[in-house]
Design brief:
Blueprint (H helix, E strand, L loop, with lengths): L5 H6 L27 E7 L2 E6 L4 E5 H4 L27 E3 H6 L1 H14 L1 E5 L7 H7 L13 E3 L15 E4 L11 E9 L6 E5 H11 L1 H9 L2 E7 L2 E7 L2 E3 L5 E4 L14 H15 L5 E4 L6 E5 L3 E5 L8 E8 L1 H26 L13 H14 L4 H9 L11 H5 L6 H9 L5 H20 L9 H9 L6 H8 L4 H13 L10 H11 L2
Parallel strand pairs: 4-5
Antiparallel strand pairs: 1-2, 2-3, 5-15, 6-17, 7-16, 8-15, 8-17, 9-14, 9-16, 10-11, 12-13
């Protein structure tokens, strides 16, 4: 492993002294570290880099985390699939609205398409007014503008924008005169019976990349020349000075603002160079091979990246009605929702692997495997019509046998592995206390029940009787009273009783995948 800068390494220490375990936020300032901080000793152990610092602090870094490569915020061309119209000859990214709502994987696929290709269409969104805001709310928040929370795109008698006429609209981005610009736009078709009025999209990043390849000098001019974008009506005066093509510090395309209807008067040096570059870029955006044309029908909702895609419309006749409702949202909400969906999927995959892998082994001297035991406990909770959080706790209550400093085998050798605590701590990455605390307290609940129910201990299996002694034996009166006063005590006792039932060899239960949607719905 290459030598890492000590301040970088210490700044990223993940221990509970350096970061809040709940939020992950740092608990120290970089200036608080000593001026002569050095690594006193280090070694690789059990998949981690163990570091002893010169000030006595100890850190542990997963090697897999150290091997991760740098990534950005998903906003630049480096994280996009640049496209031309022919790339969608087999169809555009789309999904059924009901499937999108019901299936996290389908939702992730749609949001990933918007992130990667810049757009997706949801089919079958009910044609009710205001529904577009519900679509935005499924992954983020509506951005209210001077057009309101939502706006109607239809022919208006006194329009303040060409979008509210039946004229053709050339490729453009919306609201370039705002700072910050709305980064997502949604258009929901309520009716489209007029002749014409087809929708069009152009990948602005692709157009900018073509300009950079064909004329690097023109590309450079458009990245460094601020353009005044202006919007005025009776109640509004908006202006933002931004380049047509914005790049990040590494020179990667990050944003395109392009709207000839809102471009104000430039008063700057280099006007000849700017207009030559502007005309060249405008001509590229109009190339037929770049424009993807399709028709929105009633119930279709187009979601697209307003910092990247230029959208357009053909002219339409007033022989029918064309009515779309739109709203704005922001990419950070979409990226956040997608990241959480990916995080949940990865977590559920990790839990599923425990059930299929190590969980399929022997369970602490019982006639069932660990996986069978936990599935039986969950099935018992379901049969009792328990709340979902308790079904989850019953399913996951023994997960700590695999995630503590000690294994379940150590417990059977006479050393308490405190698996209820280690399991709850591991699960707290994804689940709230309604799930983790019954897991944390389920061993204590066994000790409590032995103290307050004289016949409870008689029903324990031989292995459970053995682990009871290793884990501290029955509670005394004071300890039992203190346990009973805990907020999660009742739930923990319920989980404990299902735990005790779940030791029947050959019992038929649902598999882990049956519980996956339930776990997903409970994850933070």
């Amino acid at each position: 492993m290459p030598e890492l800068p000590p301040y970088w390494l210490r700044d990223n220490c993940p221990c509970a002294e350096c970061r809040d375990p709940r939020s992950g936020q740092k608990l120290f300032q970089i200036a608080e570290l000593s001026e002569d901080l050095t690594v006193a000793a280090q070694c690789e152990l059990n998949g981690n880099l163990e570091v002893l610092w010169s000030d006595g602090h100890r850190s542990r870094y997963p090697l897999a985390w150290l091997a991760e490569t740098a990534d950005g915020d998903g906003r630049t061309e480096a994280d996009k699939r640049l496209w031309v119209a022919a790339d969608f000859a087999r169809g555009i990214p789309e999904a059924d609205w009901e499937a999108y709502l019901a299936d996290p994987a389908e939702q992730a696929s749609v949001l990933a398409a918007v992130q990667r290709s810049g757009f997706a269409v949801l089919r079958g969104v009910p044609t009710a007014e205001g529904k577009v805001c519900e679509v935005a709310g499924s992954f983020g928040y509506v951005r209210t503008t001077t057009y309101g929370e939502l706006f109607d795109v239809r022919v208006e008698p006194d329009p303040n924008n060409l979008a509210f006429t039946n004229a053709a609209i050339t490729p453009h981005t919306d609201n370039p005169y705002r700072d910050p610009v709305p980064t997502l736009q949604l258009l929901h078709c309520l009716e489209n019976s007029a002749t014409g009025g087809d929708s069009g999209l152009v990948d602005g990043f692709q157009a900018a990349a073509i300009l950079r390849e064909e004329s690097p000098a023109d590309f450079a001019v458009l990245t460094r020349t601020p353009v005044p974008f202006v919007f005025r009506d009776r109640r509004t005066e908006l202006r933002a000075d931004r380049p047509l093509i914005d790049v990040d510090p590494l020179g990667r395309i990050r944003e395109v603002r392009f709207n000839n209807r809102s471009t104000g008067t430039l008063r700057t040096n280099g006007l000849h160079a700017f207009y030559a570059a502007y005309r060249r870029f405008a001509a590229i955006t109009l190339r037929p091979e770049l424009r993807l044309t399709f028709r929105l029908g009633p119930g279709d909702c187009l979601v697209f990246d307003n910092t990247r895609l230029l959208h357009a419309r053909t002219a339409f006749q007033q022989d029918g009605h064309r009515h779309l409702q739109g709203c704005y949202a922001d990419l950070d909400g979409l990226h956040s929702t997608l990241a959480v969906l990916h995080r949940r999927t990865a977590a559920l995959d990790a839990i599923a692997e425990l059930f299929a892998g190590r969980g399929a082994g022997e369970y602490l001297g019982e006639a069932v495997t660990t996986a069978e035991h936990m599935l039986q406990a969950a099935a018992a909770a379901e049969a009792a019509q328990a709340p979902e959080h308790l079904v989850a706790a019953a399913l996951l209550h023994d997960i700590g046998h695999f995630h503590g400093a000690l294994h379940g085998r150590d417990l059977m050798r006479g050393q308490d592995n405190r698996h209820s605590d280690s399991g709850a701590d591991w699960l707290a990455q994804w689940f709230g206390p309604e799930v983790t605390e019954p897991v944390r307290l389920h061993v204590a609940a066994k000790r409590y029940l032995c103290a307050v129910e004289p016949d409870y201990r008689e029903r324990l299996s031989e292995a459970s009787e053995y682990t009871l002694e290793v884990q501290g034996g029955p509670m005394g009166d004071a300890e039992a009273a203190a346990f009973a006063a805990l907020p999660g005590a009742v739930d923990a006792v319920a989980v404990r009783r299902w735990d005790d039932e779940a030791k029947t060899a050959g019992a038929t239960t649902p598999d882990f995948e049956h519980y996956r949607p339930l776990l997903a719905s409970l994850m933070k």
